[in-house]
Structures are given as structure tokens and as C-alpha cells.
Design goal:
Elements lengths: L6 H5 L26 E10 L2 E11 L4 E5 L6 H7 L10 E9 L2 E2 L7 H7 E4 L10 H11 L6 H14 L3 H4 L12 H13 L5 E5 L7 H14 L4 E5 L3 H7 L2 E9 L5 E10 H6 L4 H7 L5
Parallel strand pairs: 3-8, 3-9, 6-7, 7-8
Antiparallel strand pairs: 1-2, 1-4, 4-5, 9-10
Helix pairs in contact: 4-7, 5-7, 7-8
């Protein structure tokens, strides 16, 4: 099931004024990957009566790239969007189980979902810069997320974000030009800069290279490898070669059909990427990565 969500949907929400809702106390998870920055515990996501994914338990390690792979319709994007409560924007969606961020359930009643999305940022499949200048794409996103600094501090923040997204040298002399004037790959890096300008801890990426050419894809992959020094990154990708190139760990999802013809995604296995691609534990994983289905 596909539910396209624009980042503009989140920008229309009222931003909270509370302190960071999710403290940085780490918790030990049950996964062999060690201490997790985000851990899902028996998480299921429903759209009305339709169960999109069932009983997902994952533990994402800090400062690593984790990839979610699997055939179409297995719920990869649904799982990704559950990690920062983007699914809340779909009226029929509900999440059961727990999603722990540094030991605190982000679905607890007292947690502000806007603060969750500031701390756990999102980059979408298609580049979606605002119809504003390159500078304002960064500055506006920072302002609505609570930035109160001076003009000089804002200029420094914009430069820092653009440098972090490996875009500064390409745009520093045209910051007043529209973000829409950039190439597709530059637009995606602008969206990444916009995400990191809010100082997140985790960056979620939903097929960030699917709309890009091979050269732009390579730039984004190189950028991801640089960014993981400061962020934990979780990506959805249909490109298994991309998962093999950039990720430290990979989760493989599959889909099962009910008697009524409903498709529900489930986790098959989650392990180090080289292990999953060379010696998977499950036959379904081996069949998928060798092209027998999917």
C-alpha cells in the first residue's frame, strides 16, 4: 500500500514549544547488533482494518547505515515512516507495539510528534525543495523548528547545513536563486541539508536515489557514508547493490497473502550486510537476493 506524504504536510503542523521530548538515555536491545538508537518491539501498523506490517522487532545501531529491502508491497516505507510518526498524518493509520528512541517510546501520550520529527528527520523519495531560495529552504525549515538565532547565526547555520550535505561549494554564489533551479541530485542534497539543519539525531531516507541518475546517485551514497559519522541513517531501497555498497546492516522484509487477498509485510531477517548477502540465514532471503522472486 502506498501513501505518498510530502514534507510540506509536516510543515503545516503547529510546532511545539516543549523541551526535547526524547532524552538521550540509551537502552540495551535484544538484537545482536548491540545498543540501539531506535528499537521497534513487536510493532504492527494498520490502515483501517488493513494490517500493513506485522510484529516488527528491529534494533538500529548508532552511527551506522541500516537498509530496509524487500519486494514491493512488503511495508518497508510503512516501517520507515513509523520510526518518526509520519504515519500519524494518515487519518486511518494506527501503530501497535513500541518504537523506542534511546529507551523512550515515541508513541507514548506525552511525546510531541513534531519534536520526534525534528529529532528523527526524513528525506523523501523525490526531491521536494520549497519554492523558495536556496538560502530560505534551509532557513525557513530551521525557523519553524524553533531556531531563534541572529541573522549572522542563521547564515552560519545555512552554510553549515549546505557543507554537511556536500552542496556549499556548488551553490555558495547563488543562495538567492530558487531551490527548484538546481539539478535533481542537487535538489536531493538540498533536502538533506534542510533535514540536518534542524540538528537531528537520526536521518530516515525513503528511496533517496530512485529519481536520480547514476552520477547523482553516487554523490548521495558518498554523502551518506560521510554523514554516518554524525548521524544514524536508515534507508529504504529497492536497489540491492546500493544496500550492499553503503549499509552496515540490512533488514529483509517479505509479504504474505491472507485468504482474503490482503498483503501484510513481515521481517524475515536483520543482520550485517555482508552476512545477509553472502550467507543469509533464511531461504526466502537467499531467493530474493539471487533474483528468484521480487
Amino acid at each position: 500500500m502506498t501513501n505518498e506524504i510530502s514534507i510540506d504536510d509536516t510543515m503545516t503542523e503547529k510546532t511545539g514549544t516543549s523541551e526535547r521530548a526524547l532524552p538521550g538515555d540509551s537502552s540495551e536491545g535484544s538484537s545482536p547488533t548491540g545498543t540501539g538508537v531506535i528499537e521497534t518491539r513487536a510493532m504492527s501498523v494498520f490502515y483501517g482494518n488493513f494490517q500493513a506490517v506485522a510484529d516488527i522487532s528491529l534494533n538500529f545501531t548508532p552511527n551506522e547505515i541500516s537498509a530496509l529491502i524487500g519486494p514491493s508491497g512488503c511495508g518497508k516505507s510503512t516501517v520507515l515512516r513509523s520510526l518518526n510518526r509520519m504515519n500519524d498524518l494518515i487519518p486511518t493509520a494506527r501503530t501497535e507495539g513500541e518504537v523506542m528512541y534511546h529507551g523512550e517510546n515515541i508513541y507514548a501520550e506525552h511525546v510531541d510528534p513534531v519534536e520526534v520529527r525534528r529529532t528523527i528527520g526524513m528525506v523523501f523519495q523525490k526531491p521536494n525543495p520549497f519554492p523558495k531560495s536556496i538560502f530560505d529552504n534551509i532557513a525557513w525549515g530551521a525557523k519553524i523548528n524553533g531556531f531563534k538565532g541572529s541573522k549572522t547565526e542563521m547564515a552560519d547555520l545555512v552554510e553549515e547545513a549546505l557543507r554537511g550535505a556536500a552542496l556549499w561549494d556548488e551553490v555558495k554564489d547563488k543562495l538567492t536563486e530558487s531551490g527548484l533551479s538546481l539539478s535533481g541530485g542537487q535538489q536531493q542534497r538540498l533536502c538533506i541539508a534542510r533535514a540536518i539543519a534542524t540538528k537531528p539525531d537520526v536521518i530516515l531516507m525513503d528511496e533517496p536515489c530512485s529519481a536520480l541518475d547514476p552520477i547523482a546517485t553516487l554523490r548521495i551514497e558518498e554523502l551518506m557514508l560521510d554523514l554516518k559519522e554524525n548521524y544514524s541513517i536508515i534507508i529504504v531501497t529497492h536497489n540491492m547493490q546500493q544496500a550492499a555498497r553503503v549499509s552496515d546492516k540490512t533488514a529483509f522484509f517479505n509479504v504474505k497473502m491472507s485468504d482474503e487477498g490482503m498483503r501484510t509485510g513481515y521481517l524475515v531477517e536483520f543482520s550485517k550486510t555482508d552476512q545477509l548477502f553472502t550467507s543469509p540465514r533464511e531461504k526466502d532471503t537467499e531467493d530474493y537476493i539471487t533474483g528468484r522472486f521480487g
